Amino acid sequence: MPRGELVVSRRWPAGIVLVRHGESVGNIAAAEAGRRGAARLDLDFRDADTPLSDTGRRQAAAVATFVADDDDHRPDLVVSSPYRRAAQTAQAALDAWGTDHLVLDERLRERDLGAFDGLTSAGIREEYAAEAERRARQGKFYYKPPSGESWCDVTLRVRSLLGDLREGYEGRRVWLFTHQAVIMSFRYVLEHLTEQELLEVDRTTDLPNCSITSYRSTGTGMRLVQFADTTALERAEVPQTTEPGRAREATHGG
Fold first, then answer.
1. Are 64 and 232 in contact (CB under 8 A)?
2. How far is CA 147 from CA 94, 114, 125, in A?
3. pLDDT per position as a tens digit, 161-190
4. Which domain holds residue 171?
5. In this structure, what CATH number is given to the domain that contains residue 90?
């Protein structure tokens, strides 16, 4: 079946670069909880307030150094999730670019896990057995945790933000600092993926902290240039950290 989009537009940014935030203390807590088989993360922060770890700050600095002197990457607009770990990552890049103009937009925030926030997969099965069964029936894309968001809800945010970027930043370079589920939702929207195609990417490809995903305008849409690229980290010899797709059931700090 041919694929298209509901609104066909020739107004697109010249390029969109998506950066996942650096490793957060929430990522570390989630990994540790998984190793211990714990039901809940040992973490005192709200998801929105979870900061970068020491390694995360090094990763953010590596990305900043990588792009600082490259005019081809210098953005006309930098937008970040207001969540602390993403904003800290964006600020490192701004410092390297010598600018302080950062736009915070809540549409780039991580998916709201609602009642599942801070729980591991084991914790969800233990405390919300019926919900775990419902999620298995509905599938990861459409399932919405109690008081939380589905991936579809995140996709609606992405479509809204893209509408604003098409209106105000046609032909310009845009950098977005955000989270795993949001980046995957950009892929879904910009590449017109199906539910099955998106979930296959999520299942088979990890999205490392501070990895770069970029798109270039074709005149009628956006073409994927790179996905989950870690060249900046490799050149700086900074440790790479990631959370395998099979482990991203809920937790905190994606």
1. no
2. 34, 5, 17
3. 999 999 999 999 999 999 999 999 999 999
4. 15-25+53-114+149-244
5. 3.40.50.1240
